[in-house]
Structure formats: C-alpha cells, structure tokens
Amino acid sequence: MLEIFVFVNPIGNICLEVEKNLLALAGEQSRPVQIKFVPTLNFTIITDYMKAHAMDPKDLELRNHLFNLAYNIILDYKAAQFQGNLKARKLLMALQRTFNEDQRYDRAMVAELLATYHIDQEMFDEDRTDAALRDAFSHDQQLASEMHITNTPSAVFMDTDQPETDAAILLENVTDHHVFANICHELVTRPAAFYGSAELGSLNGTDLHVL
Questions:
Q1: Region 130-135: what's the mean pLDDT?
Q2: Residue 204: pLDDT above 70?
Q3: Which letter, b or e, does each residue of 134-163 get, where b requires 16 or more Cβ atoms within 10 Å of its Cβ?
Q4: CB atoms within 10 A of CB 88
Q5: Parallel/antiparallel/unpaired status of strands 2-8 and 33-39
Q6: Which of 3, 14, 101, 203 has CA atoms 20 to 30 A from the CA of 181?
Q7: Angle, CA 139 vertex, CA 116 and CA 53 arms, to 5°
Q8: Collapsing DSSP states into helix, strand and coil, what is residue 69?
C-alpha cells in the first residue's frame, strides 16, 4: 500500500488543486493508495501566501487575520473528522474553494457546508469546542515538523510495497500544481525508480528527498 501524507495550507488555492489531483490519482490506481490531508500552519506559510497574493507581509493586522482564519478552518476540519475522513476532506476543500472564490469565511457559511456534506451540526459544534481538538491540531503540526515540512503543498510518500527500504520520500517546493501532480504520478506508478536512493535531489525544479 502507498500512504501519502499531504501537507496543505488551509486557505491555499494551489493546495486545493493539488488535493483534487491526488484524490483523482489515487482513484485510478490498481493498488491501495491512502491519502491523509494534514492542514499545516506556521508564519512562513502565511508569509508565502501573502507574497503570492501581492499582500504586504509586514501588515501585521492582515497577517494575524489570515493566521486566525486558517487556524479556524483547521479546527473545522479536525472537528468534522470525528464524523469521517471523507466528509472532513470534502468540507476542507469546500472551505478552501469558497474562501478563494469569495474571500468569505463565517459560521453561517460553515453551517451551510455542514448541511451540504451531511455533517451533524450539533455533534460538530460539540467537537469544535472540545479541548482535545487543540491537541489534535498540535499533533498535526508536530508531525509536520518531524517530517521536515517547511512549506505547502508538500507530500510524504511511504510505500509498504518496497520492503527493501523504510525510507519515505518528501516532495516539496512546488508552486505549480500540474508539476506536483506529474511527479506524484511518477512516484505512484514507478516507485522503484525513486525508492532506495540515498539522495534524490531535484526533479523538474522540485525538491525530492529521502527522509
């Protein structure tokens, strides 16, 4: 089985396209491919987002607003996970899409999306205020740190069909979601060409490393 951890910016439009491409890719494979979305948040990610959208990274009020917005979307995603990963993924992608299209995020919008994806509002509200949710958020950020994630989108590939190595491959520094999808396709369909290398280096300007 191929396990893919996808580290994404919860408000990023490039990340949204990567998520769509990876889910489609997983559905085309003859062997099991498990994808785990890990919304990731730090000040570097927010800075990169602001620069990509011609925002002033020195605008502290805007920076804090975007950080808090991303944090709330992550908590929405984590709360929805208690009702199933599939529903949570759909909610996350809908939140990303709505924010990037309309620059909108509020509780009324979240409620609409919960109804759309058949997520129980009462259960969601209860889980959303649970202190354990903050622990789950911290766990995800720790996972990102342990896997050396510095920007998004990034992905870590772990292939149990390659028993000769315990290595995981980190794919990062991607600004074009088409390039990201193409390299992911190579990693999924031709793993023997990648696994076992001591150092993969750069492929099409994209960084690939063995963890």
A1: 89
A2: no
A3: eebbeebbebbeebebbbbbbbbbbbeebe
A4: 20
A5: parallel
A6: 101
A7: 60
A8: helix
